[in-house]
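Case study: Protein kinase domain-containing protein.
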Amino acid sequence: MADVDAEDKPQRPSASADKERKEKSSSKKVATSATDLKKIIGGRNLKFEDFDLRATVGTGTFGRVRVVKFKGNPDRTPMALKILKKSEVIRLKQVEHVKAEKQILTMIEHPFIVNLLSTFQDDKRLFMLMEYINGGELFSYLRKEGRLPNDHAKFYGAEIILAFQYLHSMNIVYRDLKPENLLIDSGGHIKITDFGFAKVVEDRTWTLCGTPEYLAPEIIQSKGHGKSVDWWALGILLFEMLAGYPPFYDENPFGIYQKVLAGRIEFPRHFDVKAKDLIKRLLTHDRTKRYGCLKNGAEDIKRHKWYKGTDWDVVFARGLPPPFTPTIKAPDDTSLFDKYPESTEASAPSISPKDQSAFFDDF
Ligand SMILES: Nc1ncnc2c1ncn2[C@@H]1O[C@H](COP(=O)(O)OP(=O)(O)O)[C@@H](O)[C@H]1O
Ligand SMILES: [Mg+2]
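Here is what the predicted structure looks like once written out:
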């Protein structure tokens, strides 16, 4: 059965509507910042029916992310609505993860991390309303380019290093670094999305989660893991950006784990020697020797010779020139994302009142 609701029909303007839109467009307001958006939302109790729906920009295990706008509001700023099916969240035992996702996103604010605007729920679904980042996934850009030049990988790496340093300073481990979760904003800068695996940790934590290619040895070996896993994943990401493929690869997860544990990395010959040195220090099995995990923390990475001459205050201020700025026709442009069949996840089964109060009353 197709899971399509009336409001899911493609919304194509007629030629006259198009003309009208062009004439009106100069008077249409678009909020510029997440702060403006938060003001518009205020203390409102949001519901799904408050939104006009636009394209799906991503799908995941429990649901999808759609671009939305407020119905009948003069502000036409597009936002991203993450829709999760409660039944799937329960079935896949992700209740605690979803709650942590909300809790952590509510706590944080950083130039390279997506802003959460609000959350709400109905009987079947959980909703997270975020700012919409319209430049697409780093994943798509990387696949299109094949691999990135040294300086470009360095730029994206720098922004992620600052975001991780910030998260770790708040005892938050991100645990899901990969190009699919890295969005490019309209200015060409990174925004990390998807805090579905993020966790507040005191020291180490033990759950097996993440994506096989990016898992650190201590996760696979269930030795417990903390902030160190993010620095390992950074090593994988730097390698993948520069090579165009991840360092440990196999058709199936088990094969990947074996390669991670064997720890042999074949660096392509074109790699910059300094990049290679930093990647080796990040992809160090022994986490007591891994860069990022030593007593100077992220500073060791920031002071590594690959980043020689980098002014980290400039990085933080979004002052480094980005490798490219996405070509965006309008704030609600979705052309840089893959196309997905539409749905509102309304076909999800309702959950029992018992499950509701056990799992989601406090979402
Ligand atoms: N704020 C956002 N703006 C634009 N696209 C987004 C945003 N958040 C997520 N996406 C897109 O939706 C995809 C799925 O969202 P994500 O939070 O990663 O869900 P999942 O936990 O299912 O992986 C992302 O890979 C990204 O392409
Ligand atoms: Mg994701």
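For the exam, be able to explain this: The radius of gyration is 21 Å.
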